[in-house]
Amino acid sequence: MNFIKIILYLVGVYLILGGLASFLKTLSILDVFGIFIGFIPLIIGFYWEDLKNFNFKAMWGILLFQWFILFYVFFNLRSFNFGDVATATTIAMAATVFTFVIWIRVNQSVKKTPEYHVADSTFKMYDWWHEINSTNESVEFRNSVSDNEPLLEMNLLLKQYTKAYELESEYQNSKSSVNRTIVETENKTIEGINVRSVNSQDTNKDKTFLDYYFQKNGKYYSIHLAGYTNPIKELHNKRIEFTLESIISTIN
Predict the structure, then answer these.
(1) Any idea of the CA torsion for 189, 193, 198, 201, to the nearest 10 degrees?
(2) Suppose 183 and one of 123, 172, 192, 199 were both cysteines; which one would form an S-S bond, judging by CB atoms 3.0 to 4.6 Å apart?
(3) Which helix (H) or strand (E) holds 185?
(4) Domain ranges of the chain
């Protein structure tokens, strides 16, 4: 699990349990505020590697409830410690600003999907990929985060086939490669399209190869990803998921 996710979970649980323990002693509405503050790092942690699907409804709901509590406190200010109220207000403002930052980041990342071509098809890719080679029937990319660190390098090759049997032949070859160990074969649905996948590794298990085969609108495609095993599993897993969804949903 990602280290940042663990920290966010721990902070959230700490705030919730601390606020609950204090509430049982004081029955203060500010402790209720503190309990709900704890849900914010929990939500952020849960979606930390999947910001594209961030649950903004839950986050806005928690923030709205917190501001309702603060408005109640403001109208009954004499009943509360001014320092506690100031701290709660600062936390609510910081959480609101941070949520806006996440919202802006997610919307920008969705928009940053340049259009590319392969054969007679067009598709969109996220901007963390850059094109390094292309032919009429294929286009190759490298992930931009690998520029200064070769071990993080990951390549992607997208191919289009003219005949169904060409796609089938490549799929069968990927399942029986002499130089690779097959880890898993799977049929899955991505963006409503049936996709056959082959997960394999080299003989030393240092590198992982992810191959995907699918048909869409009467055209035949394959996506081939290759990189060092640990980064693909630990660092690039969500990027791979988003990339596949972007290509398969937009290719036409």
Answers:
(1) -80
(2) 199
(3) strand 180-190
(4) 3-111, 115-250
Whether 226 and 209 have beta carbons less than 8 Å apart is answered as: yes
Tell me how far apart the terminal alpha carbons of the chain are, to the nearest angstrom. Answer: 36
Is the CB of residue 124 less than 8 Å from the CB of residue 117? Answer: no
Average pLDDT, the chain: 85
Give the whole-angstrom CA distance, residue 237 versus residue 49: 9
Tokens of 60: 């806005």
Q: Tell me the pairing of strands 193-202 and 207-216.
A: antiparallel
SS3 label, residue 215 = strand
Pair of tokens at residue 87: 């701290």
Residue 146: per-residue pLDDT: 46
Question: Residue 145: what pLDDT?
Answer: 58
Using CA atoms of 29, 33, 35, 36 in order, give the dihedral in degrees to the nearest 10. 140
C-alpha to C-alpha distance for 84 and 77, rounded to whole angstroms: 11
Q: Of 136, 110, 143, whose CA–CA distance to 124 is shortest?
A: 110
Helix (H), strand (E) at residue 228: strand 219-228
Contact 248, 193 (CB under 8 A): yes
CATH superfamily, region 115-250: Mog1/PsbP, alpha/beta/alpha sandwich (3.40.1000.10)
Q: At residue 85, what is the residue type?
A: V
pLDDT band at 46 (very low <50, low <70, confident <90, very high): confident
**Rg of the Cα atoms in the chain:** 24
